[in-house]
Structure to design on (153 residues):
């Protein structure tokens, strides 16, 4: 009797768990690159963006990107394609079909994946991706991480 009640509770909690996602679901920052108030503000802005334009932006920071070739790449133009390929694979593995931004401060790496549906619907073009990356890179290059997060959203 108790075990069936417990099983039903687990099923119900699992069903509703998507509605109870953490407040920072759009910004995963285990490296503490951003301050908590900035993360909350970004989450609110992304929630509004989702409500009005059906677009979500996910940010994730990393201490170290596990790409062997990244460390041996001699220049930034050599590293960027490696990192962007890794970001694309990671976003697909996470089921993200919108915008996904991966950041490694220690490796000075930044990648942006734009989901195919955004490109197909002409919501976000390759040129937009380049502008978006440039905005982030300029802010991060000046160590304005919080400003870069907010301005990019």
């Amino acid at each position: 009797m108790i075990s069936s009640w417990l099983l039903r509770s687990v099923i119900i909690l699992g069903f509703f768990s998507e509605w109870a996602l953490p407040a920072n679901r759009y910004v995963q920052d285990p490296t503490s690159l951003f301050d908590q108030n900035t993360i909350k503000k970004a989450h609110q802005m992304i929630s509004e963006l989702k409500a009005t334009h059906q677009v979500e932006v996910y940010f994730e920071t990393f201490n170290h990107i596990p790409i062997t070739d990244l460390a041996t790449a001699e220049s930034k133009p050599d590293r960027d394609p490696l990192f962007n390929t890794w970001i694309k694979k990671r976003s697909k593995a996470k089921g993200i079909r919108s915008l996904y931004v991966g950041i490694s401060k220690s490796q000075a790496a930044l990648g942006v994946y734009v989901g195919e549906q955004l490109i197909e619907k002409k919501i976000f073009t390759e040129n937009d991706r380049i502008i978006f990356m440039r905005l982030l890179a300029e802010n991060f290059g000046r160590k304005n991480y919080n400003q870069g997060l907010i301005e990019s959203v």
Summary: The radius of gyration is 18 Å. The beta strands are 27-28, 57-62, 99-104, 109-114. Residues 36-53 form the longest helix (18 residues). Residues 1-22 have pLDDT under 50 and may be disordered.
